[in-house]
Amino acid sequence: MSNEPTTPLPDSPFRPEPGDRDLAPQFVLPLVVRIERAAPPPRTDALETAARAVLVMLGDERSSGDGVWAEAMRDWQDARIRKVVRRARGAEWRRAEALPGITVTGRAAEVRVFPPVPLDGWPKDLARLQVSGTDLDDPEPPGGADPAVPVLWMNPGLDMSAGKAMAQAGHGAQLAWWELDDAARAAWRDAGYPLAVRTSAPQRWPALTTSGLPLVRDAGYTEIAPGSCTVVADHPALR
Known about the structure:
alpha+beta
């Protein structure tokens, strides 16, 4: 069964077809996850921490108004909302931490998010980091999500690397942020951006994608087919 809408889509930053956003200069939001060989973080913890890192960057005072990152954030959000997750350990992580950005910690995961950079203009200490190798596992299945907390529901039918899934979770969090009013954004920020990432039950996924909640359709640059529905952002304020 197709979940494609019958009305035309707006020029979404995630829309697979070319649009006006493709004519703008393209930027990317870099995220670096710390993966030490002896102690990699659990997959779900890494996904949740990456999503929170995107929200922390969006809500930071340096990202709006006359903030030092505001222009880069506006340029990025006017074009495709690309996010790339790379991994680092040891000295690589220490070099990444020395660059302007924000480190967000989960239960065990650490993710550093940086202000957007041109698609072909990464700082050398980030450009040299690997994209591959972010295949993380959960030692135990995550528990049920608290219905009072925003949940980013992942498509149960897609096989994505942890790095790809981290970027998709970040997309979902960002779409929810955009749809919230100022009061709801402030409440989420003041609470520390609580959220959960869970894989939907297969039988529930069709209803989620047609619920009217924010839905990420991937542009298909890596790993999965263009137009794939990857995440539904279920924020209580948007239900």
